[in-house]
Amino acid sequence: MQRPGTVRERTRLYHDAVRIVETEYASDLELDDIARRVASSRRQLQRAYAEIGETTFRAHLTHVRMQRAAELLVQTRQPVRDVALRVGYRQSAQFAKTFRRYLGAAPAAYRMRERVRAA
């Protein structure tokens, strides 16, 4: 069992990191940079993600990026490569591969499927 102070601190670290990721997901975020910004070590932030968020920094960043990409694909007519750039991927092929793995369809197919559902 962890001390209450440890749990409070890890909860704070996790929530501070989440706020940064959710607002700056399109930029080149790295765990070390986030740890420095929330006044923590890399390892402590990793523990906060594991214990409080039950995930990893990279998985959380990917989740946020894919959710935003899905919204952009459905709500806009931007080309897939532009959506990829807007959510932080420089390579549209890497974006498409991650999107397909995460949401089960290629970005263009996802866009068409979701628009048909909404109609």
Name a few traits of the molecule.
119 residues; mainly alpha; Arc Repressor Mutant, subunit A
Structural overview:
The chain has two domains: 4-55; 62-118, Orthogonal Bundle (Arc Repressor Mutant, subunit A), CATH 1.10.10. Helix content is 74%, strand content 0%. The chain has helices at 4-24, 31-37, 42-51, 57-75, 80-86, 92-103, 107-118. The longest helix is centred in the first third of the chain and has 21 residues, at 4-24. The chain is elongated, with a radius of gyration of 17 Å. Pfam families: HTH_18. This is Transcriptional regulator, AraC family.
* Uncertain parts: none
Distance between the termini: 52 Å
Overall pLDDT: 95
How much of the polypeptide forms β-strand, as a percent range?
under 5%
Order of helices and strands: HHHHHHH
CATH fold-level name of the largest domain:
Arc Repressor Mutant, subunit A
Number of DSSP E strands: 0
Cα-atom radius of gyration: 17 Å
Helix share, percent: over 70%
Protein structure class = mainly alpha
Sheet of most strands: none
Total helix count? 7
Kindly provide the name of the CATH class of the largest domain.
Answer: Mainly Alpha
CATH architecture of the largest domain: Orthogonal Bundle
Domain unit count: 2
Oligomer: single chain
InterPro entries: Homeodomain-like_sf, HTH_AraC, HTH_AraC-typ_CS, Tscrpt_reg_AraC-type_HTH
Pfam family, one: HTH_18
Keywords: DNA-binding, Transcription, Transcription regulation
Domain HTH araC/xylS-type: 15-113
